[in-house]
Amino acid sequence: MSENAQKAYEAVKAQIDQDPIASDWMEITQERVNDFADATLDHQFIHLDEEAAAATPFGGTVAHGFLTLSLLVHLSTSIKREGPPLEGVLMGVNYGMNKVRFINPVRVGKQIRAHSKVIDVTLKGNAVDQIQEFTVEIEGEDKPALVAEWITRTVYA
C-alpha cells in the first residue's frame, strides 16, 4: 500500500457526510445539445426540433439525460473541498455509477449546477475509490435534473 494512498483515504474519509458543495453554474445551449446528439447518434426530435418539441409537455427542446450526466465531469471541476493537498496522484479514472435517476428534464437555455457530497471511500492497495452523491440542480426548478452516485478511483505512487 502507498503512503500517499493511505493519507488520501484518511482525508476523504473525513469528508463523508459533510454538507454538499455546489459547483459553478453552466448554461445548457442548443448548440451543446446538437453536438451531443451528433456524437451519440441520438437525434430524437425532443432534443433538436424546437417547433415539434414546443408541442410536447416539455414546451421546448431538452438536453439528453446522458448529456446532463456526462457534464458531471465538467461541473465537478469547480467543486473545491477543504483538506490537505493530496500528493503522488498518478491518475484518476471513472469506475462507474451505483445508481442514476433522471428526475426532471433540462430545458435548453436553463442553467444547471451540481451539488456533491462524499458518501463512501475505500482503500484498495495504492488506489482510493470514492463514492460521491451528485444532485444536478436546475435554476428556478423545484426538482433536480438527476441524482447519481458516481464512483471514481484515484491511483497513487
Short note summarizing the structure:
With 157 residues, this protein is of the alpha+beta class. It has six helices and six strands.
Which SSEs are present, and which pair or pack?
Elements lengths: L2 H11 L7 E2 L3 E2 L2 H11 L4 H4 L1 H5 L10 H6 L1 H5 L12 E14 L8 E14 L2 E12 L7 E11 L1
Antiparallel strand pairs: 1-4, 2-4, 3-6, 4-5, 5-6
Question: Your description of this structure?
Answer:
The chain is an alpha+beta fold and 157 residues long. The protein has one domain: Roll (Thiol Ester Dehydrase, Chain A), CATH 3.10.129. It is 27% helix and 35% strand. The protein has six helices and six strands. The chain has helices at residues 3-13, 30-40, 45-48, 50-54, 65-70, 72-76, and strands spanning 21-22, 26-27, 89-102, 111-124, 127-138, 146-156. Strands 1, 2, 3, 4, 5 and 6 form a six-stranded antiparallel sheet that branches. A hairpin with a 7-residue loop joins β5 (127-138) and β6 (146-156). It is elongated. The termini are close together. The mean pLDDT is 96.
Q: Which regions contain 5 or more consecutive residues with pLDDT less than 50?
A: none
Helix share, percent: 25-40%
Structural class assignment? alpha+beta
- Work out the number of β strands: 6
Q: Which architecture per CATH? A: Roll
What letter string, H or E per element, gives the SSE order?
A: HEEHHHHHEEEE
- The number of distinct structural domains comes to 1
